[in-house]
Amino acid sequence: xxxxxxxxxxxxxxxxxxxxxxxxxxxxxxxxxxxxxxxxxxxxxxxxxxxxxxxxxxxxxxxxxxxxxxxxxxxxxxxxxxxxxxxxxxxxxxxxxxxxxxxxxxxxxxxxxxxxxxxxxxxxxxxxxxxxxxxxxxxxxxxxxxxxxxxxxxxxxxxxxxxxxxxxxxxxxxxxxxxxxxxxxxxxxxxxxxxxxxxxxxxxxxxxxxxxxxxxxxxxxxxxxxxxxxxxxxxxxxxxxxxxxxxxxxxxxxxxxxxxxxxxxxxxxxxxxxxxxxxxxxxxxxxxxxxxxxxxxxxxxxxxxxxxxxxxxxxxxxxxxxxxxxxxxxxxxxxxxxxxxxxxxxxxxxxxxxxxxxxxxxxxxxxxxxxxxxxxxxxxxxxxxxxxxxxxxxxxxxxxxxxxxxxxxxxxxxxxxxxxxxxxxxxxxxxxxxxxxxxxxxxxxxxxxxxxxxxxxxxxxxxxxxxxxxxxxxxxxxx
Length: 479
Ligand code: BES
Ligand code: ZN
Ligand code: ZN
Prior knowledge:
This protein is of the alpha/beta class. It has two domains: 2-147, Leucine Aminopeptidase, subunit E, domain 1 (3-Layer(aba) Sandwich); 160-478, Aminopeptidase (3-Layer(aba) Sandwich). The chain contains 15 helices and 21 strands. The protein has helices spanning 31-38, 41-48, 81-94, 113-124, 153-172, 180-194, 203-208, 212-218, 260-263, 271-286, 331-344, 358-364, 376-389, 422-431, 466-478; strands at 2-6, 14-22, 26-27, 58-62, 67-76, 100-103, 142-146, 197-201, 226-232, 240-245, 247-251, 291-301, 312-315, 321-324, 349-354, 369-373, 393-395, 413-414, 439-443, 449-450, 460-461. Strands 8, 9, 10, 11, 12, 15, 16, 17 and 19 form a nine-stranded mixed beta sheet that branches. Helix 10 packs across helix 15 (466-478). The two termini are 34 Å apart. The model has no long low-confidence stretch (mean pLDDT 97). Residues 248, 251, 269, 330-331 line the site of one zinc ion.
């Protein structure tokens, strides 16, 4: 999409003009003049359709001046960047049939307005149309922002939105179309285009390198696993951020098999890896001055004759032995190797992202990710980055008292606890593979997938965590 800026509304034209309206029909920038131009019927019409500017409300009316149509977009009582992202997403979705769109949303005097509007608009327009015979993708080709000079905000929002779009496309792709070697190939294309070094380990190399967890989970699958390791090393960077993403391209549960209903959306189980790919693409395209190590173990979790059995023991990359009592708790097994590998290069901060536990979405619902940190400062710094990125996370305790739930009589650790505090025991399991380095775990089992369109979030894979990871990279680069 071509995104340009015009200082004055009088100089703008287009098929659609999106105008912000505060609650109680308090007109946002440019709206009063347009309403006056349209004539007295507009207020009566808006009364009739009960449009009063509540957050998320929209109303189309015919255009005036240089515009074919006008869309009023409700902001609610007060707007901040979060509200703008959401409203721009709703407006973006509503605007898909118009080729040239202009808006004064970007002229609101709110910190980060341009960034929020572009980000929300682009992502609200997202559609996964690859497999539709009648695809009807968005027709919008140009977005004209009315307001002052946005500096680098348009480029920033565009880069992050492209990363989220990549993640959504990968998540929405059916598992049959993203076998580990295929997904690794897509990662390689992304990395090569972005100037990121990439190494892909095949099954034999995974065995040689001692990635025992990834190997164990992959045993039941006919399609072989891959371990993808990416390195972004810009000039002038001193700090290193490691990003580790769970890449289970399909989670049947393995021999501890899931019920049919629980499997329907399990192509989503590589959302952590997708977020790492999307974030690294955005970080590299923005030239953020921080080294980033990306590690994504990729495999299916299947039930083939060679599948790992409950009770089996494997040795992870860091030498610890793991008794696997439930093969459906497989994410932590592949992350054990991913974290161990990342820890070997002693990064300043490690963040793993995973659709790890149903327990986390039971605790926090579908819109909030669970966040665990090795220490208060590390955890709170990532909470702050997520806040800035507009993603909702909530810190949960890495409660050491529960570590004994993972004691195994015959191995260093077992892979499940009891039925209580499942998100916490999963995080405690992961901690064993972090080498005591600063580390944050994001459990995105809830927000990785949306049941319906919601603001700039679209039904299906959401690309959750891409924006947070980019914000963390920026914040770490500055420190
Ligand atoms: N991929 C699932 C977690 C999940 C469930 C993500 C629902 C998104 C929606 C994970 O591999 C899993 O199955 N976890 C088990 C762990 C349990 C066996 C300890 C779970 O949450 O039930
Ligand atoms: Zn599972
Ligand atoms: Zn899983």
